Amino acid sequence: MEDSVQDQALGSASHDHAAHLDGAASHDHAAQLERAAHLEPADFDAMRVGYGLHERLDGADLAGGWLPLFTAWLEEAGRRGVREPNAMVLGTATPEGRPSTRTVLCKGADERGIRFFTTTTSRKGSQLAASGFASVTFPWLTVERQVHLEGPCHPLSREESLAYWRTRPRGSQVAAWASEQSRPAASVAELERLYAEAAERFSGDGVLGGGAADERFSGDGGVGASVVSASAADEVPMPDRWGGYLLTPERVEFWQGGRDRFHDRVECRLSDGEWSVTRLQP
Ligand SMILES: Cc1cc2nc3c(=O)[nH]c(=O)nc-3n(C[C@H](O)[C@H](O)[C@H](O)COP(=O)(O)O)c2cc1C
Known about the structure:
The protein is of the alpha+beta class. It has helices at residues 18-21, 23-37, 66-79, 123-131, 158-165, 170-178, 188-201, 212-217, 224-229, and strands at 87-93, 99-110, 113-119, 133-140, 145-155, 242-247, 251-256, 264-271, 274-280. Strand 4 and strand 5 (145-155) form a beta hairpin.
């Protein structure tokens, strides 16, 4: 394998990185940082908004379980201008209980739970493999709402992951091949090289031959077998190191901002196969 850890890509690289390398853009960025160095510390005291858009939640709102209300809130958030209402903050933890969070996109919600997709060998993937539990928070701030869900979180079957993989834009599929998510990258140029290699590999010319780059694609977490069986001309195969997860909620909390910070909180909790609904103090 040609790759040291330094050689590996970080994050999901986009193929259009001209702006990162462009002289004018990097000059603007440097100027922005220079200005920031002279700013006063942020005035957190002045950052205060009032809440109170909504009527109080009612027990009847949850008569049908957590899913109908969740779906209604998600749709309303989108209608009222929340950008990417399916973005959620995913919390995972190490076996020692050290938590970490990051934003991912919810790509499905039904009675079984909440689905998202990622690189399974990433930092979050390692933590999920070790603990089997996760939390997610949908922060719909502009409509003064959030929903938390917590529970066991396990990989989807390869078939389910593949079904979603096939709907992804080709560029995102290539990026998943190019990036060993969460590993260090030596430089932007290194990322560009990794993306270009992956793009070249799946350029549709049918070439799936050997060589140093091929070893990287079939290395740890890669999918040598899938590559060989793929039709390079039209489909980008799904890397073994990529897939979906299902978070099966055992606790769901609905939160709405209230006047004077006297917020509205309602918790649904699963115990012995039964859901109970409890109002919580703000
Ligand atoms: C709005 C938004 C959506 C994102 N969606 C995803 C996603 O669906 N899957 C993913 O792997 N990373 C997504 N990311 C990037 C993650 O936040 C994170 O940087 C990445 O998954 C690596 O996390 P990890 O090192 O903790 O594993 C998204 C970031 C943002 C800001």
